[in-house]
DUF3558 domain-containing protein (Amycolatopsis jiangsuensis), 151 residues
Amino acid sequence: MTTPLDTTKFDQHPCSALTETQAQQIFAAVRSREGGGTVAPGCSWYDSADNSVGLGFLPGQGGLATTYKNSVDAGAGYFEVAPDVAGYPAAFAGVSDDRKSGGCQIAVGVKNDEVFTVSALLDQSSQDYSDPCSLVTKVAEAAVTTLKSGA
């Protein structure tokens, strides 16, 4: 990777990867919650109907190559190369394919051995239910903007 991003201050505080304004504009978020994860903490934002978007960093886990392996090894999973997110390689990937029912996950490579993921869990009340991958892409683009600014 030619221009890796410094994620140090975000790895343990993923809610800081989106500003409150970004979360409200993109997803109409009314609240967020940071919690523990298996590798590093994750952040979830919720709209007024409890639809959620989650974001987390996976430092030192092998980057997009590991995302591919985990998705394919899951059997029911999916891995599709996505358009670059603000100049960084990305893939839609998950261990189960719920894209037709309000779910999608994107992994964005920000270092050779690190990605961050954005996932959506939406019900039919969400305007993004029929295209959750578009939503996670917008959130990922906003996060890269924040990472680049070092905010």
